[in-house]
Design a protein that fits this description.
7 helices, 47% helix, four-stranded antiparallel beta sheet, 227 residues
């Protein structure tokens, strides 16, 4: 089925693939890949504020935060929430961030309500596919990170990001690092293949950071209990 003209306009403007969108069979609701919305945020030069934490219970699998983004003079905010009731993976903070930021991006480009992010619910995943943070380039098949190393540019980016991540200990700091690389992507006109690779790197570091924070919280808890 053809996309709603308003959705199609956004898809063309930001160079997304038609396969980045699909409909839920039961209610015909349009859904978009999370990684495609990351591409939109980069190309639209969305500026993010540090998230506002509403509820934090990592051990209970609950994370609720507010994300605020700016595109030009327009500012939008949205809540992202994850709990055992609506999230099956082990990284509630990563999921809460994705949901909040995806909602903000959809609001900023004017199609929130017409389109939902795939991470809103398990039922929103594309039929026959697993959850993915990787966007499909508009005019070609996705390229692996390995293929981006051949000219040395991606290798330089990966090494630089690894060094930057040594000083990151919070999601707010991680967001600042991602903003830096998004700005570099926009400045240098990186194509979808480079954005694909960057999304892979961010996803891996996001998981590592979540594990590190959970470990630190677990180590601090006995000390606090003994005070």
């Amino acid at each position: 089925m053809a996309l709603d003209p308003r959705i199609e306009s956004v898809r063309e403007k930001y160079g997304l693939a038609k396969e980045d969108f699909w409909q839920i069979p039961q209610n015909k609701q349009w859904v978009c890949k999370h990684a495609a919305l990351e591409v939109v945020a980069t190309k639209a030069n969305v500026e993010w504020q540090s998230p506002q934490i509403i509820q934090a219970d990592t051990s209970g699998g609950i994370a609720v935060l507010v994300a605020t983004g700016k595109m030009g003079t327009r500012v939008e905010w949205a809540t992202g929430e994850a709990s055992p009731k609506n999230n099956k993976n082990s990284y509630p903070w990563a999921m809460a961030e994705k949901r909040a930021k995806d909602r903000v991006v959809l609001k900023l480009v004017g199609i929130h309500g017409l389109v939902y992010s795939e991470d809103e619910a398990d039922d929103f995943k594309a039929p026959g596919t697993a959850a993915s943070d990787i966007p499909a380039p508009a005019n070609d098949k996705p390229k692996s990170s390995a293929s981006l190393k051949r000219d040395g540019t991606f290798e330089r980016i990966r090494e630089q990001l690894a060094q930057d991540m040594l000083d990151v200990s919070t999601f707010a700091q991680f967001e600042s690092v991602k903003e830096h690389y998004r700005a570099e992507a926009k400045k240098n006109g990186w194509n979808n293949s480079f954005l694909f690779g960057l999304s892979e790197l961010f996803g891996g570091y996001e998981v590592e950071l979540q594990k590190r924070i959970e470990l630190e919280n677990a180590q601090q808890s006995p000390l606090m209990a003994g005070e």
